[in-house]
Design goal:
The protein has 880 residues and is of the alpha+beta class. The protein has 17 helices and 46 strands. Helices cover 24% and strands 28% of the residues. It has a six-stranded mixed sheet. A five-stranded mixed sheet has the order 21-28-27-23-24, with no helix packed on it. It has a five-stranded mixed sheet with strand order 29-31-45-33-43.
């Protein structure tokens, strides 16, 4: 039934459709009944365009599309319209824009307006005329984008017609001496320029009084044709504007500019100019800006205040001067640019920057140094630096670790069931609660043990388990070797030699800084440090590209298990440990033969064990941080140095050691004079060399720069020599035994001297050390322990790289590597005087020599000639 109804309905619809829906509607497309024109604005600037649009509709108001439109303008001289309805403004006026579609039209009005004036620009910008003279000005009217607009009226005027008159066309005429403003106005926009009228008679310069000027005094210039109005006279002293206080037609009184404002110049005549309405009267006057200085041979001067640095004049003494300018900021990232100004009246020009003064030391024939010496040193230092930074962070994590160690000792004491009567008597009943447990006896040679080694230095959640064999047991050292080492079981004699050196020499050296076993009773309590030699150290590669010869880790002072997770370090061996490479000639990486291993092992051990001293002392004192990196590495290098002095022949401090006193033995074959050739001191000197060749870009305070292994070591050595009060170890121990003092603060509190003084004197001591034929009166301007010029000369003459083709290349090309700018007395060139971006903890050096015929001016100024930058100081030393 439903299906039948749907069929009938469909059929009926078809019939209706066939009949045309009733037949009343016309056939074909609908016709256009109306046209409307619209525009986005009713105004249009001359030269601008607007896009008009139209809409066509049928009689029922329905929009129609696809129809042809024709556009037209009622006034094409005012506005034109394109076929697409885009209208362009031609001239100011009104027009009607019409759109015609199939005979039906629509329109919209448009008003074209002139381009608005945005600015008026007068040229020329400065005008000077004499009374009665003229000068033509022009005024350009511009739109908003700087295009000239023509046909606009410009109105000219003068603010002081008695001084300057101006015509309607911009012609200015000088009327009376003076200065005023001329204006040009167009449609509310204006511009103005200054016009100076000079008198018919120019001023003249007569005399200056007093005869000698100094900064800040009252002075007078007499002459003729000055202005009686003070503000119309301008006085320049050596190019700097003075403050005019009074004037007449024949005199001008003023205040000489301050010393900080004036250029630093030699005492004597300087140019003086009096400018009156554009005319200049020139003359000269005696001016003394500089502070007079006189240095005898060997004497020096340390200048740090802005006033002392601004201008100094050194008497005519001749000879030779050394100058250092240093950045006393304790932040190496604070970099400062400045200039060392040098001038002398009538003196010859200074030389360009040249090479440093060579050493007069005579080199000795010596051995070759393998490429490993310096080419791998950076990788070793990078690896070591990464390990030290990680260990320092670990100490910070374990603040209060000493308390945890004390708790561990107490637990061990309570659990001990076999405490001997001798121990009880030694500790005493009143001390039992805090006394150590019975010392743990050391292992025996040949014992096999399991030990842990961290795999990385930034993640202590995993470790390598290492099966080791005990190969040496001494009074203070135990040595163990990894059972997987390539030479396992064949190196007992070599290990015995290393152990004997540690117990005989190194332990005493370490005691100069502190006791590496200060925490022993709280850790493994065996009275010894332990060294593990494993091929795993050869293979460790760090993310920073570094590799390792050996390392220590503060992780070993944490427990493997503890209720407090901050006191836990899984790789810990819970004692004082040192880990080092093993001979591994056939290894995948870190291939070292036995001879290379013997050359590097002991120097690495003493350096790393100095870090252990710092760790245990800081933990013992409950310090929240370890020593700052630059100073810790410097003092660790000092430990290597003290050990080197022992094996060279028990030299004391301040012995001014030369190349032949021992450093040459670092890379010499065994002989009567070098019975124990081993890498000992050249590691610090190698990095000191790298510091010196680029000293203006280096800082002894930069924890991230490898030169701290040389430059910072040299500073630590110098400051110890200067302030040890006769006991080297007293001073070095004081540096280490600090709970809160670190870095520069530690040094300042140990010496009691300001940083600017310490670093300034050190910069000169480094530059002047063992200067050939030089005289130095103050011992603070020497490096007493090492004759650096002689050592560097020996390195230059004797140490070379052997290339694959059999040729050799100097390992240290400069006999004296410090970069010193060479100058003669006189005026310094820009390239010689300017220092750019000197870091805090860095210095620049100059040597001044030649014939001195006039006083020499030296000044530290900003790069623009203004006041010295903050933190910059200067040391001047007359060495000859």
């Amino acid at each position: 039934m439903n299906r039948t109804r749907r069929s009938i309905t469909t059929a009926l619809a078809v019939v209706l459709a066939a009949c045309g829906g009733g037949g009343d509607k016309p056939s074909g497309p609908p016709k256009v009944a109306s046209v409307a024109v619209t525009a986005p604005a009713t105004q249009l600037e001359v030269g601008a365009t607007l896009a008009f649009s139209y809409s066509a509709r049928d009689a029922q108001g329905n929009p129609l599309s696809g129809r042809t439109v024709t556009w037209s303008s009622s006034a094409p001289t005012v506005a034109t319209v394109a076929a697409d309805g885009v209208v362009s403004g031609v001239t100011a006026g009104q027009a009607t824009i019409t759109a015609a579609v199939e005979g039906v039209t629509g329109s919209a009005p448009i008003t074209v307006i002139p381009i608005p004036v945005f600015a008026v620009v007068i040229s020329p910008r400065t005008v000077t005329v004499r009374s009665g003279e003229t000068s033509q000005l022009t005024a350009q009217v511009q739109d908003a984008i700087g295009r000239p607009i023509t046909g606009r009226a410009v109105v000219w005027s003068s603010l002081a017609p008695a001084t300057v008159s101006v015509s309607t066309t911009g012609l200015v005429t000088g009327v009376g001496a003076g200065t005023t403003w001329v204006l040009a106005v167009a449609e509310g926009k204006r511009d103005s320029i200054s016009v100076r009228v000079r008198s018919l008679t120019a001023p003249t310069f007569g005399t200056a009084s007093p005869s000698q000027w100094t900064p800040g005094i009252a002075a007078t210039v007499t002459g003729a044709n000055f202005s009686a109005v003070p503000t119309e006279n301008e006085v320049l002293v050596n190019g700097i504007r003075a403050t005019v206080t009074a004037s007449t037609a024949t005199s001008v009184s003023f205040t000489v500019p301050s010393a900080n404002a004036l250029p630093c110049s030699p005492t004597g005549p300087v140019p003086v100019a009096v400018i009156v309405n554009g005319d200049t009267a020139s003359g000269a006057a005696g001016l003394a800006v500089a502070t007079p200085r006189t240095l005898g041979v060997g004497q020096h001067m340390l200048l740090t205040s802005s006033g002392d640095l601004a201008c100094n004049e050194f008497a005519v003494t001749g000879g030779r001067y050394l100058v250092t300018a240093f950045n006393a900021s304790t932040n190496p990232n604070v970099k400062t640019s400045f200039q060392l100004l040098g001038a002398a009246s009538g003196a010859s020009a200074a030389q360009a920057a040249g090479p440093a003064q060579p050493s007069s030391a005579t080199p000795t024939a010596g051995p070759l140094v393998s490429a490993l010496v310096t080419r791998n040193a950076a990788a070793f230092a990078l690896g070591h630096l990464a390990a030290l930074e990680s260990n320092a962070a670990l100490i910070s994590r374990g603040a209060g670790l000493r308390g945890a160690l004390l708790q561990r000792r107490e637990r061990a004491r309570r659990n001990a069931r076999d405490v001997s009567a001798t121990a009880r008597q030694a500790f005493g009943a009143s001390a039992r609660a805090s006394a150590a447990v019975v010392p743990v006896p050391p292992p025996n040679v040949g014992d096999r043990l399991w030990k842990r080694m961290p795999k990385t230095f930034n993640n202590y959640n995993s470790f390598d388990s290492v099966r080791v064999r005990v190969v040496y047991v001494g009074p203070k050292l135990i040595i163990m070797e990894d059972s997987t080492n390539e030479n396992f079981g064949t190196m007992d004699a070599e290990f015995q030699a290393v152990g004997t050196d540690f117990d005989t020499n190194m332990y005493d050296v370490l005691s100069s800084f502190g006791d590496p076993l200060a925490l022993d009773s709280l850790t493994d309590n065996n009275g010894r440090v332990i060294a593990i030699f494993s091929k795993r150290v050869n293979e460790y590669q760090l993310n920073n590209g570094g590799s390792l010869l050996g390392y220590v880790t503060s992780c070993d002072f944490f427990e493997q298990e503890d209720p407090d997770p901050d006191n836990v370090c899984l790789p810990s061996n819970e004692g004082e440990y040192f880990y080092a490479i093993a001979p591994n000639e056939n290894g995948v990486r870190g291939k070292y033969d036995l001879a290379t291993w013997k050359r590097y092992t002991r120097g690495t051990m003493i350096h790393e064990m100095k870090h252990v001293v710092m760790y245990v002392q800081r933990i013992f004192l409950d310090a929240s941080q370890g020593e700052e990196t630059w100073l810790e590495e410097a003092t660790a290098q000092m430990a290597t140095e003290l050990w080197a002095r022992k094996i060279y022949g028990a030299f004391g401090s301040k012995a001014d050691l030369r190349w032949t006193d021992g450093p040459r033995c670092d890379y010499a074959v065994a002989s009567a004079t070098c019975s124990d050739p081993v890498e000992a001191i050249l590691h610090p000197f190698q990095f000191l060399y790298q510091h010196y060749v680029a000293n203006e870009t280096k800082s002894i305070l930069d924890n991230a720069d490898l030169i701290i292994y040389g430059g910072s070591w040299s500073f630590a050595r110098w400051v110890t020599d200067q302030f040890d009060n006769g006991s080297e170890s007293t001073f070095t121990r004081a540096l280490v035994h600090q709970r809160t003092d670190r870095g520069v603060t530690n040094v300042l509190n140990r010496t009691g001297r300001p940083w600017s003084e310490l670093f300034g004197l050190f910069s000169m001591a480094s530059t002047a050390d063992n200067y050939p034929g030089g005289t130095i009166s103050d011992p603070r301007l020497r490096l007493p322990s090492w004759n650096t010029r002689d050592v560097f000369s020996g390195m230059n003459a004797n140490l070379v790289f052997r290339n694959q083709d059999g040729s050799t290349t100097p390992a240290f090309p400069r006999a004296w590597p410090l970069s010193v700018r060479s100058a003669t007395f006189g005026t310094f060139s820009s390239g010689l005087r300017t220092v750019s971006f000197l870091p805090g903890g860095g210095w620049a050096a100059w040597e001044i020599s030649g014939t001195q015929t006039a006083p020499q001016v030296l000044a530290i100024r900003s790069t623009s000639g203004g006041l010295p930058p903050n933190g910059i100081g200067m040391v001047v030393l007359r060495v000859q």
